[in-house]
Amino acid sequence: MNLxxxxxxxxxxxxxxxxNQDWRGHWVPPHPAVRQRKGVLLAVADGLGxxxxxxxxxxxALSTLFDAYYRDPTRDPRRSLVQxxxxxxxxxxxxxxxYEAYRGMASTMTAAVVxxxxxxxxxxxxxxxxxxxxxRVYTLSRDHSWAAYAxxxxxxxxxxxxxxxxxxxxxxxxxxxxxxxxxxxxxxxQPDDILVLCTDGLSDRLTPGEIGWLxxxxxxxxxxxxxxxxxxxxxxxxxxxxxxxxxVPAPPHALWQPPRxxxxxxxxxxxxx
Length: 273
Hints:
By secondary structure, the chain is an alpha+beta fold. Helices cover 34% and strands 25% of the residues.
């Protein structure tokens, strides 16, 4: 059985930010053969490194990822996705190395491929990916923040980590070093599964249970809006971005939407298909 993602996304600047440094995007290949071979790609990125460099890093991360993923000839989506992350890392690191204005820029990245009933997730940083199935919420990504590692090592309790001054310090990000390791996971999807990708501006303000409840209670366009509005109502300081994708057995015309991107998102990935 093929499953098709009904996708909606929304992004907004944080309470004290003039510019939104998050980027998000998804691509539904219009050609059936490409869609069958490579699937649908969704991704979010949270830029790091200052007002100008952060937005550049997150934009570069996604444009490079989408271009690299669909250009890769292999049929293994996990391998293609990880290679895309590595390409994005090299692109951002190289730009920062050669151009002083962008030195030190980096980004988180969480990406998902849906191909039939197969789901592949790859992530670097602390932008989470959730799967909601039959009322339960599963975290599919790994948090690469210092606080998460401290909890895993039993140096901090989850409550202490949530309020620790180093909770946003990342031990792993895209572009901060010459090489990076992306964590990847694969699983089999079921009808009515819901996939949520977001940045920490959302996950800092809403619990996984709240994210799951709102994603189940509304169709994706309304769910994305409700999630962002709830985070902003709780004074989200960081930029808030979310992609909600509900897996349906058939692609009704009303659900099968063209690709949607953040404002001014480069179309490099689209040209690669």
